[in-house]
Specification:
The complex is a heterodimer of chains A (326) and B (361).
Chain A (H helix, E strand, L loop, with lengths): L2 E3 H15 L3 E5 L15 H5 L4 E3 L4 H13 L3 E5 L10 H8 L2 H4 L9 E6 L14 H5 L5 E3 L4 H13 L4 E6 L7 E3 L13 E4 L4 E5 L4 H13 L4 E5 L2 E3 L3 H11 L2 E8 L4 H12 L9 E5 L10 H4 L3 H13 L2
Parallel strand pairs in A: 2-3, 2-4, 4-5, 5-7, 6-7, 10-11, 10-13, 13-14
Antiparallel strand pairs in A: 1-8, 6-12, 9-11
Chain B lengths: L15 E2 L19 H26 L13 H9 L6 E3 L5 H6 L4 H8 L25 H13 L6 E6 L6 H13 L3 E7 L2 E2 L2 E2 H4 L8 H5 L2 E6 L3 H16 L5 E6 L18 H7 L4 H11 L5 H23 L19 H10 L6
Parallel strand pairs in B: 1-7, 2-3, 3-4, 4-8, 7-8
Antiparallel strand pairs in B: 5-6
Helix pairs in contact in B: 1-2, 1-11, 1-12, 2-9, 4-12, 5-6
The chains are: A alpha/beta (326), B alpha/beta (361).
Chain lengths: 326, 361
């Protein structure tokens, strides 16, 4: 199997989906001849033509709204928003239309669309380019929110998202677009949505994260192993709806849990997981659930952003405290 | 050469279309379809049904049997005229005040009542299954129309998307973004702005600095036309032209239907707070139903006996629909999870069971 980067896996999945299904349409700013600002759509326009790989005007609300209209006609649009900081004009369409048109019309119209956007900080990008506001999206009923953390999962989950009959926001971890490499077989096989992946088995503490932050989380698990602490690492992968059973099952086994995300703390998705464990996993807990998160500050520009993001040290420290709690 | 010797690179004009004067007389030769008495009386009947339906809906709201409702009073010619020019396979993307268009396209009155009565089943309406439901967030359906039209073009289908919204919506980026994209790709879509002069309490002069709304199409690269929205003949003729051009691959059109909202914005509004009774009274002289009736009677296309029969038919039609609406069994609470996703994710099944009284969540 060829080794490739995460963004190459995204490109591979898009090409495969377009090859397999003439209803798949890719649209966004600069996705055509330029191949997207991160090159996620490179080569697609040459291969599938400008009608199916469509350079839109510079208008994010339009991109999401076009997707709703196309999807209602049975196309499978995959819209690209260049950075998550530019996703906000799409929120009206996601909340008021994409996520609820099936329910509003009692199934008469549906919305099988995907909206892709790079997610997260750590690439020294300009202001507004480093957002990780996934919790805002995960709050919306009727939507799916998916974040891959490896090339293999980017390929399989994106294929699943495109084939899913409901709207999916697909958040691509910008920081590991090229840093994450792995073998991907272009076999057209999707990975399951709504399912968490256990990346590492362990009995002492459960570490839960998603997207780029799994890089630090896995490194922390290695460091903890050197100290004799066996951490179980869960890649949540789908945040809406998320795999409660895997979370609760792991915490039942380990009795301890650390949730890691780079998004700001208050109202972050970690709070949801902590609440779930408090409600339904309390009796198995040996220590309070810990969160290692970004601070309740606006994500700083390049010079300070590394201080916002959870480090391996912060995760290890939190895990140690959780393990030593008595 | 213009002032200062600089060259003029472009000039534009906006035309206004009208056939029937407020008293029912003709301003200029009518379009061909107007010689079809059956069609003209069908337009008249549809407007009358809508007005009767509106009256009943307001009565239901006032007696606590319907939620907030948006009346079409005074602007019946817009939605009826537009819808009558569409084919069944075209797709309508209406705003919340376009009942007349939905009814023309086969939506049942009881379905509209269900919607305003707070039941999603109202949007699972009869009529063309690909039509969009009422859009409440103002103007946000315009990008959908562009997407629908793009799908038609991609699949080389000779179909047209018709998107209706009010004057207030033309102030939103959504509408401009959609029109701009439609212009770029010459999409088969017709945008219809019902300019009823008031966006709740905000008059047109505070909505836009433009002389017309029709001219907004110029910035998107296509034709915008102003139409007398109280003249159903003009509305139908303009819609026919625009829809035919769009179907023929000539790209989008924009219709500004100039009319007047004689009623409140909704049953929750009191228009006397922001406009005078005298202003409204004066506008009653231009309303579309009396106008068409005067013409029809003058042409011997319509009689007093027909009018009486129609009144009875409208009454019976509306009353029967109200009966069916009121007799509709309420939905089970757990049905809020129906059609939330194609398949309800397992994690939400427990919440549904709790709502159904079948266990804890």
């Amino acid at each position: 199997m060829p080794e490739m980067t995460l963004v190459e896996a995204v490109n591979l999945a898009l090409a495969r989906a377009m090859e397999d299904d003439p209803d798949v349409v890719v649209l966004g700013e600069d996705v055509g001849i330029n191949g997207g600002v991160f090159r996620a759509t490179v080569g697609l326009q040459t291969r599938f033509g400008p009608e199916r790989v469509l350079d839109t005007p510079l208008a994010e609300l339009l991109i999401s709204g076009l997707c709703v209209g196309m999807a209602a006609q049975g196309l499978k649009p995959v819209g690209e928003i260049q950075f998550m900081g530019f996703l906000y004009p799409c929120i009206d369409q996601l909340v008021n239309h994409a996520s609820r048109i099936r329910n509003r019309t009692q199934g008469r119209l549906t919305c099988p669309m995907v909206l892709r956007t790079p997610h997260g900080a750590g690439i020294r990008a300009p202001e507004h380019h480093s957002e990780s506001t996934e919790a805002m999206l995960a709050h919306i009923p009727g939507l799916r929110v998916v974040i891959p953390s490896s090339p293999e999962r980017a390929y399989g989950l994106l294929l699943a998202a495109i084939r899913d009959p409901d709207p999916v926001v697909f958040l691509e971890p910008t920081r590991i677009y090229r840093a994450a490499k792995g073998e991907v077989e272009d076999n057209g096989e999707a990975l399951p949505l709504d399912v968490a992946f256990v990346l590492r088995q362990g009995r002492d503490v459960t570490l839960i994260s998603w997207g780029a932050m799994l890089k630090e989380t896995m490194a922390a698990a290695d460091a903890l192993a050197a100290e004799g602490v066996a951490a179980e690492v869960i890649d949540l992968a789908t945040l809406k709806p998320y795999d409660e059973a895997t979370v609760l099952g792991s915490v039942a086994k380990t009795g301890r849990c650390v949730i890691v995300h780079e998004a700001t703390r208050t109202g972050g998705f970690g709070a949801e997981i902590a609440a779930l464990i408090a409600e339904r996993g309390l009796t198995s807990l040996l220590a309070p659930v810990a969160r290692v998160t970004g601070y309740d500050a606006i994500i700083p520009m390049a010079r300070l952003e590394q201080h916002m993001m959870p480090s391996v040290d912060r995760i290890v420290t939190a895990a140690r405290q959780v393990c030593q709690f008595s | 050469m213009a002032d200062g010797g600089l060259p003029v690179v472009a000039r534009f004009e906006v035309r206004h279309r009208n056939y029937l004067a407020p008293d029912g007389s003709i301003n200029r030769p009518l379009p061909a379809f107007a010689s079809d008495a059956d069609l003209l009386t069908a337009l008249y009947r549809a407007m009358m049904l809508l007005r009767n339906f509106d009256r009943k809906a307001v009565a239901l709201q006032r007696t606590g049997r319907l939620g907030t409702y948006a009346v079409s009073l005074g602007q019946e010619a817009v939605s009826v005229g537009i819808a009558s020019a569409m084919r069944a396979e075209d797709v309508l993307l209406p705003s919340y005040r376009d009942n007349g268009a939905l009814i023309w396209r086969g939506v049942k009155l009881e379905e509209i009542l269900l919607f305003w009565g707070g039941d999603e089943r109202g949007n699972h309406f009869s009529g063309p299954v690909e039509d969009f439901p009422f859009c409440v967030p103002v103007g946000s359906q315009a990008p959908h129309a562009a997407g629908v039209a793009y799908a038609f073009k991609l699949r080389k289908q000779p179909r047209v998307a018709v998107c209706m919204f009010g004057d207030g919506a033309t102030s939103k980026g959504d509408v401009y973004e959609a029109m701009n994209f439609a212009g770029v790709h010459k999409l088969p879509v017709v945008f219809v702005a019902t300019n009823n002069q008031w966006a709740i309490s905000v008059p047109l002069r505070l909505q836009t600095g433009c002389e017309t709304l029709a001219q907004k199409a110029i910035a998107a690269g296509f034709i915008g036309e102003q139409v007398d929205g109280s003249d159903v003949v003009a509305m139908r003729a303009a819609a026919e032209d625009a829809i035919a051009a769009a179907r023929d691959g000539q790209g989008p059109r924009f219709i500004e239907a100039v009319t007047y909202r004689l009623g409140d914005h909704t049953t929750s509004d009191d228009a006397l707070r922001y406009r005078s009774a005298e202003e409204v009274q004066a506008r009653w002289k231009e309303e579309p139903i009396a106008r068409l009736r005067s013409y029809l009677v003058g042409q011997k296309m319509w009689s007093k006996a027909q009018e009486e029969r129609l009144a009875a038919e409208c009454h019976d039609h509306v009353e029967a629909a109200v009966e069916r609406y009121l007799a509709t069994e309420p939905r089970r609470p757990e049905s809020m999870f129906e059609h939330l996703y194609a398949d309800l994710p397992r994690v939400y099944a427990a919440q549904r069971r709790k709502l159904a009284g079948e266990g804890d969540a």
